[in-house]
């Protein structure tokens, strides 16, 4: 009986640096987002709230936000539709 060889599945997506949203982040936000990327977080979008940008990232365990200053909020009061 021959064993069937399973194809290799590459689940990598394009690097975050190629994202349209990535270009809208401040340097501090990019640093924080890169750190969170190691834990599976992906940049969903950037929201402009009261004149300041807030980056929203998500993974299988939850959502986080990053302020312009790079401050990470792991339990934001945020509803994503």
Describe the 3D structure.
By secondary structure, the chain is of the alpha+beta class. It has a domain at about 25-75. Helices cover about 15% and strands about 30% of the residues. It is built from one helix and four strands; from the N terminus they run αββββ. It has one helix spanning about 25-35, and strands at about 40-50, 50-60, 60-65, 70-75. Strand 2 (about 50-60) and strand 3 form a beta hairpin. The mean pLDDT is about 85.
Write the layout of secondary structure elements.
Elements: H1 27-37, E1 42-49, E2 52-59, E3 62-66, E4 72-73
Antiparallel strand pairs: 1-2, 2-3, 3-4
Provide a brief overview of the structure:
With 81 residues, this protein is of the alpha+beta class.
Order of helices and strands: HEEEE
Instruction: Please work out how many helical segments DSSP would assign.
Output: 1
Percentage of residues in helical conformation? 10-25%
Instruction: Tell me, rounded to a whole number, the average pLDDT.
Output: 85
Shape: elongated
| Terminal residue distance | 50 Å
Share of β-strand residues: 25-35%
Keywords:
4 strands; alpha+beta; 1 helix
């Amino acid at each position: 009986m021959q064993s069937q060889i399973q194809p290799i599945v590459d689940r990598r997506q394009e690097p975050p640096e190629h994202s349209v949203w990535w270009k809208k982040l401040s340097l501090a936000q990019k640093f924080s987002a890169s750190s969170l990327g190691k834990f599976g977080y992906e940049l969903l979008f950037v929201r402009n709230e009261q004149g300041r940008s807030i980056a929203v990232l998500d993974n299988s365990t939850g959502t986080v936000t990053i302020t312009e200053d790079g401050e990470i909020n792991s339990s934001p009061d945020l509803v994503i539709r």
